[in-house]
UniProtKB/TrEMBL annotation:
Domain of life: Bacteria
PANTHER family per the UniProt record, alphabetical: FERRIC REDUCTASE, NADPH-DEPENDENT (PTHR30157), NADPH-DEPENDENT FERRIC-CHELATE REDUCTASE (PTHR30157:SF0)
Gene3D superfamilies in the cross-refs: Translation factors (2.40.30.10)
Domain FAD-binding FR-type: 18-116
One Pfam family cited in the UniProt record for this chain: FAD_binding_6
Protein species of origin: Terrimonas rubra
Protein name: FAD-binding oxidoreductase
């Protein structure tokens, strides 16, 4: 979905029943000052949840943003989303104000599938914007008995969030542009052991970090790479 539309077009899109569903907020909690987890309830029977898909929420008169569900239960009509609230963007302002009993419309998920179940090893890289995807894929990784590893680059205030969300097998790195340094990336353990030579790599989060990580991985023809930049400094509405 386009991130910005004229108001008349945004109004029409939000009213389109074939792609948007009415939802009500049951719970809204802050995992950290910048990480907010919201539980929505509504009819989600038409939603097809795949790892890598995102739901769209209208965040202003003219703007929409993509968010990945961290958990869903179709029978109970439950949908959880973990939001990264940062800066003063339209999405952050809107999400920060949401409270229990608020009602809004959320789109059906769509996007690019990132989970390749045929690959035994699964490696997931990202930042705060990737925590929802990490939470959604963890039960699948455990059920299918994949060896897996998470790498997260996080702001200092969020470095304890993966533990609070129940994530496992993760390594946290400070968000200091380390993943934009090709030489530093090439020296990471994942590049210096044969364990991940045929893994499925899921790369999300900051565009520049994803590009650097992907560039170093492309030297390995045996790996499978799925990547999606979620945000880039100075650019709205990825």
């Amino acid at each position: 979905m386009i991130s910005k539309l004229p108001k008349w077009a945004a109004d029409l899109t939000e009213k389109t029943g074939s792609i948007m569903s009415d939802m009500k907020i049951l719970e809204a909690v802050y995992i950290s000052p910048a990480i907010k987890k919201i539980r929505f309830q509504g009819n989600i029977t038409r939603m097809n949840f795949q790892i890598g898909y995102a739901n769209v929420i209208r965040v202003s008169d003219t703007e929409f943003r993509n968010y990945t569900a961290s958990y869903h239960n179709v029978r109970e009509g439950i949908l959880d989303i973990i939001f990264h609230i940062h800066g003063n963007g339209a999405g952050s302002r809107y999400i920060d104000k949401l409270q229990p009993d608020d009602e809004l419309r959320i789109s059906i998920p769509r996007g690019k599938k990132m989970y390749d179940e045929t690959r035994r090893q699964q490696f997931i890289f990202g930042d705060e914007t990737s925590l929802g995807l990490a939470c959604s894929i963890l039960p699948i990784l455990k059920k299918n008995k994949h060896p897996y590893q998470f790498y997260f680059e996080l702001d200092d205030e969020n470095q304890g969030v993966p533990e609070l969300l129940g994530l496992e097998n993760y390594t946290v790195f400070p968000k200091k542009n380390l993943f934009r340094n090709e030489q530093w990336v090439s020296e990471l353990p994942v590049f210096n052991t044969g364990e991940w030579n045929s893994a499925n790599f899921i790369l999300t989060g900051n565009v520049k970090s994803v590009q650097t990580f992907r560039k170093k991985l492309k030297d390995r023809s045996s790996v499978n790479i799925s990547s999606q930049g979620y945000w880039l400094e100075g650019k709205k509405g990825l």
